[in-house]
Amino acid sequence: MGRTEYWYDDRAPRPNSLIPACNMLVARDDGAILLQRRRDTGQWALPGGAMDIGESPAECAVRECAEETGIVAEPVGLLGVYSPPRHVVAYSDGEIRQAYEVTVLGRPVGGRPTINAEADGVRWVMPDDLGEFDVHPSMRRQIDHYLTGAHPHVD
User: Fold this and answer.
1) Residue 126: exposed, middle, or buried by beta-carbon count in 10 A (0-12, 13-18, 19+)?
2) 3-class DSSP state for residue 65?
């Protein structure tokens, strides 16, 4: 399914749904941050996705991280809750979603970077190298909050 993200864009269509999603910002002891390159947009992002009924935000973040990157991570904190009304995601099936993301902090405890149906690239990226990657502004904002210590954050 195709997707188009609108970030503070006056051309964004009006949302018709709001679905809780969870991301995980996983950092190694050396400071490297885990990123995946999304197959649907080609942009680099934190691993994450929609919550399943019966899951906690931490469980969702752990599951999504493992599914999308091959890395098993342990939750260690909360980065924030991100739901700016002007971050809209339009899907090719007609769903137009206002983003709602709980971003959990994690540390790696196993696995290895692995591509899959959702991600055609998985990398550990040092903070000084982030400028070399096409990271969507919503993800870059979350990463910057982590790097500057501006968390927990609530939109």
Assistant:
1) exposed
2) helix
| Burial of residue 151 (number of CB atoms within 10 Å: 0-12, 13-18, 19+) | middle
Overall domain count for the chain = 1
Domain that holds residue 66: 3-154
Q: Name, in order, each residue with C-beta under 8 angstroms of 71's C-beta and a sequence gap of 6 or more.
A: 26, 34, 47, 65, 108, 110, 111, 112, 113, 122
% of the chain with per-residue pLDDT over 70: 100
Task: Give residue 25's pLDDT.
Answer: 98
**Angle CA 131–97–12, to nearest 5:** 70
Regarding beta strands 44-45 and 33-38, do their DSSP bridges make them parallel or antiparallel, or are they unpaired? Answer: antiparallel
Return the amino acid letter for 86.
R
pLDDT, position 103: 98
Q: What CATH number is given to the structural domain containing 142?
A: 3.90.79.10
What stretch of H or E contains 33?
A: strand 33-38
Model confidence, pTM: 0.93
Q: For residue 100, which of 68, 144, 60 has the smallest C-alpha distance?
A: 60
Strands 21-26 vs 101-111: parallel, antiparallel or unpaired: parallel
